[in-house]
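Forwarding the complex inputs:
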Amino acid sequence: MIRRGFQAVIRLGHHRVLPGAPHVLPRLNRTSAFGSSTDSLVSRFCLEKTDLKDYALPNASWCPDMLNLYQEFLEKTKTDGWIKLPSFKSNRDHIQGLKLPFGLAATSDKSDWRIFTRCLQVEGQGYEYVIFFHPSKKKSICLFQPGPYLEGAPGFAHGGSLAAMMDETFSKTAYLAGEGLFTLSLNIRFKNLIPVGSLAVLNVDVEKIEDQKLYMSCIAQSRDQQRVYAKSSGKEVLSLSPDSVLPPSPSGQMEGRILRIRSQTEVQLFRVGMGTCCRL
Amino acid sequence: MIRRGFQAVIRLGHHRVLPGAPHVLPRLNRTSAFGSSTDSLVSRFCLEKTDLKDYALPNASWCPDMLNLYQEFLEKTKTDGWIKLPSFKSNRDHIQGLKLPFGLAATSDKSDWRIFTRCLQVEGQGYEYVIFFHPSKKKSICLFQPGPYLEGAPGFAHGGSLAAMMDETFSKTAYLAGEGLFTLSLNIRFKNLIPVGSLAVLNVDVEKIEDQKLYMSCIAQSRDQQRVYAKSSGKEVLSLSPDSVLPPSPSGQMEGRILRIRSQTEVQLFRVGMGTCCRL
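Prediction (whole assembly, two chains):
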């Protein structure tokens, strides 16, 4: 697992480097920013042919609100530029569709890993969700229905389950909108509790991309928008540059390498390997 | 489930009302604040005799760091005032040990509910954690070992799983330290990724209790404190006053009742029932 951890981080930090200059997306016209690169990321992320199970498809546990809004957005994928993101059981599966840097091969891994938000396998028991992403608008909609295994106060979703759902939606949005890699911060203000089994709609917007960081906001509310469950903001650091990786150590081992993230104002150093990835 | 949700919230808001005046805990001597009431809460929370399974006990999946630190803190429960909190599969079980207001009986519920942080039942697969609480110091230590089903980036815990662990530790700490009920905000700065299967130690401090809110901080780090995984702060609203519940509606239904939370500077209104709990 030690080397696997490192390789995975490298794999995520694949081949494209964002321009160093800050990119503030205009509030009223965000359609032009990073259009083509985002399209390329999306096409690699959304594999057309795969044997992997997509967990972001309707099942018998979905409530009517969730089903209806899913169908509504599915229509918008045909006419309005929205894209339904697949959701596999592990990020390792998502990574398989991406081009790897440095000629690294994707290591096969027979262990049973799961992305946290797909940790429960029984339909309706845990996380039911689907994310739609709009490449040119740089925004996402996540339809989220918490099951009875996500409980906090009796009958209501645990605040932490919503926090994780927000983090996951931020993460996928940031990756597709600007190769966001690591969540740096997550700030949530909870307003109301989400009843277990009901729909919460998470609206995520990329507010700006600046200084090698991507800033996002989220509002989670009921379908009719009459009840706000929570508001949040998140910040993600952007892609690791492959040419910023220092040469291998004399021993040839992978551990202990340094990754530099360069921006206009600073250089951040990460040491990866030995099963860790830590900022220096 | 509709009435259940309401009743549970009422149950949580049991019989004691904190003084209205703000209580800022002195940084160097926090041992006196709320001593006796906290002791009473702790004794009701930590049932001496129960058939419920306690999930906060060592199992074969625990790494040596986690086992060793668990034993260390277990010794401190005998000599240094620390208390090991039990951890049942649902908050509904925790609530059973508490005195209920208004003569409400605890409704039996045969459905399969789980607190989010105990959603996975296979040892080592998901959350492994144990919380120790120090009543007079108003602080908690949570030993947290994320399993392979809590993954984000390959080999590392999902940021959302740590966010949920922080929220849960805040929640239990806030309840025992001052009858904290609802998380109002959660702000996290992520520093480093936690390798799956390793130990993260969460140190939670109650910073102050002021204006009917409880402010907490958390630092999550490796056992040797050489690597900080994340820092966070949280704010919880304190106990609902039972006598602030408005009379039942003419229909006699539980839904739609208003709960008032009174403080020196404001009154916050919550409408509970209809499967929801929302701030007005």
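Chain A touches chain B through 66 residues (CB under 8 Å).
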